[in-house]
Specification:
single chain, mainly alpha
Length: about 240
């Protein structure tokens, strides 16, 4: 497969996918839901940990808004990644291994959605840490990785009751799971190329590094034994 020719010939479609994914990711649900729940009086970025994400909404606003936040963040990521897959499909017409190209596109567009969530264009580039958006990307890009990540998250969370620890663990294992599945199953059994394995794993690694860096303050609190276990504020 001539990846270079495909990239040059389909750059327009791919650019549309990246931009659309970033703009969808920029719709930060935590900010919107908190404003609605507080009738415009509060900004989630000025409450609790200051993070515009599910966990802070749960602790600072309540269960109902938190559930709405996680559903909408997951949905926007799913839509962004599906759209990205369509754009990469259009970009790959006439080339072999279209399925591989589309999956790579889903990983890349998922990254741009996470980037938008963390640095939203519509909210002064101050957003969340991208965990739920990353989960939505995994669900569409590779459901096998999604199942492994969700299982890991639940095990760590049930044992520790600390969402950040479970999130960081999953982020660290994301490229590992991706490599194992793409190399030992896709490449060895279905004839996918080494480039496919490399690009999927590289995209997963990039997302993992980004998410872990966004959790740097949580890592500091974990090392000091100061990270709080999950508690929810009761919705009024």
């Amino acid at each position: 497969m001539d990846y270079k020719a495909m990239i040059i010939g389909g750059w327009g479609y791919m650019l549309i996918g990246f931009v659309a994914a970033y703009l969808l990711g920029s719709v930060n649900t935590a900010v919107i839901v908190t404003r609605i729940a507080t009738k415009g009086k509060k900004d989630i970025r000025e409450m609790g940990s200051g993070n515009a994400g599910f966990t802070n909404v749960l602790r600072s606003v309540g269960k109902g808004p938190a559930i709405l936040t996680i559903v909408c963040d997951l949905l926007k990521s799913v839509i962004a990644v599906i759209l990205g897959g369509i754009m990469f499909y259009l970009a790959s017409k006439g080339y072999d291994n279209v399925d591989a190209i589309v999956r790579i596109g889903k990983y890349l567009c998922g990254f741009f959605c996470i980037l938008g969530h963390s640095y939203p264009l519509y909210f002064r580039f101050k957003g969340g840490k991208g965990i739920v958006s990353a989960a939505g990307m995994m669900l569409v890009a590779d459901w096998r990785v999604f199942l492994m990540i969700i299982t890991t998250f639940l095990i760590v969370f049930i044992i520790s009751k600390i969402i950040s620890l479970a999130s960081i663990t999953c982020a660290a294992l994301f490229p590992v799971y991706t490599f194992v599945l793409t190399f030992f199953i896709d490449k060895m059994n279905f004839g996918y190329t080494g480039w496919y394995v490399f690009l999927c794993t590289a995209a997963a690694f990039g997302i993992a590094v980004f998410v872990i860096i966004k959790h740097s303050s949580n890592i500091g609190r974990l090392l000091r034994g100061e990270e709080k276990k999950i508690t929810a504020k009761k919705s009024k």
